[in-house]
Specification:
333 residues; disordered C terminus; alpha+beta; six-stranded antiparallel sheet; Surface presentation of antigens (SPOA); cell projection; Chemotaxis protein chec; elongated; four-stranded antiparallel sheet
Length: 333
């Protein structure tokens, strides 16, 4: 009963039971001292911590955003994809949870072992294909009668879409997704043993007026080598490292070779629109810059120096005579 707060009525009832002999204080102490037994289902082994599941959720939230951008550009219609859930379940339970006939894309992800499965609800798949073929994005479900052309269009589209997983996973592993198999019947697909633990990330997907789910099934064997990188400690640690002297030297050399536009401003003048329209060849515009004052020298659009105009080797030139304060000069003359 530790950790529970009893009401006054419950306390009175407990004292009454002890005084009448209905309850024995020694038996209560014995029950508290005994170890609590918790049922554990070995068929549903939890191999990932909540922390690691959260990390996988964060990674695939980024993947969902990338998919939204990709499909929006390809279909030219409203597309919204977001993570609905992330769970670890036996592979057999995942297969039973998806439709009997659906779109299954199996990907190799070298250098990691094993394969990743992307299951796409037929309504979403057909709406996507209809839109790509010039339709309005209407959905029909005849997945059991896919033609060779429809199969090719779908597999090519989902292969290009899954390439974005490479960018989403870039912080934990450099993978190269490759479409290895395309199937419509889950019963013909046996990636791992039925009791193998898999992580299933479900994505809510809306294409036009059609909604459905995209499920990404990742077996434990795929994630096993990178499990340490799914911890909070790995994500929180800084990625900044001290640059090597050779790297710094290369950066300095590239900066020194960069070109900057430098202009000397002779002066400015304000005139009316009427005077501007009346300008003709030979007209003189009076500037606001006195001859005896130095000119402003700009680097890009930022005033950096003052200089004196002149000539050198029969060419117009300007001599830098001072740096402007607040121009972030830092000796760059």
């Amino acid at each position: 009963m530790s950790g529970e707060v009893l009401s006054q009525n419950e306390i009175d009832a407990l004292l009454s039971a002890l005084s009448t002999g209905e309850m024995d204080a020694d038996e209560l102490k014995k029950e508290q001292s005994e170890k609590k037994v918790k049922v554990y289902d070995f068929k549903r082994a939890l191999r990932f911590s909540k922390d690691q599941i959260r990390s996988l959720t964060r990674i695939h939230e980024n993947f969902a955003r990338l998919l939204t951008t990709f499909f929006s550009a390809q279909l030219r219609t409203y597309v919204q994809i977001s993570v609905a859930s992330a769970d670890q379940i036996p592979y057999e339970e995942f297969i039973r949870s998806i439709p009997k006939m659906t779109i299954l894309n199996v990907f190799d992800v070298p250098p990691l072992e094993g394969r990743i499965l992307m299951e796409v609800n037929p309504n979403i798949a057909y709406a996507l294909m209809d839109r790509m073929m010039g339709g309005k994005g209407s959905s029909i479900n005849k997945v059991e009668n896919l033609t060779e052309i429809e199969t090719k269009i779908m597999s090519n589209t989902f292969e290009r879409a899954f390439e974005h997983l490479q960018e989403a996973w870039s912080n934990i592993s450099e993978i190269d997704p490759i479409l290895a198999d395309f199937e419509v019947n889950p019963q013909f697909l046996q990636m791992v043993s039925p009791n193998e633990t898999v992580v299933v990330i479900s994505l809510n997907t809306t294409i036009g007026e059609t909604s459905g789910m995209i499920n990404i099934c990742i077996p434990h064997v795929v994630l096993e080598p990178i499990i340490p990188k799914l911890s909070v400690h790995y994500w929180m640690q800084t990625d900044k490292k001290d640059r090597e002297p050779q790297e710094i030297a290369v950066l300095e050399q590239r900066i020194q070779e960069a070109y900057l536009p430098i202009t000397a401003e002779l002066g400015i003048s304000d005139i009316s629109i009427q005077d501007f329209l009346m300008l003709d060849v030979g007209d003189v515009i009076e500037l606001n810059q006195p001859i005896e004052q130095p000119l402003t020298i700009k680097v890009g659009e930022i005033p950096k120096y003052r200089g004196q105009p002149g000539r050198t080797n029969k060419k117009l030139a300007i001599q830098v005579i001072e740096a402007l304060k607040g121009g972030d000069d830092d000796g760059e003359r």
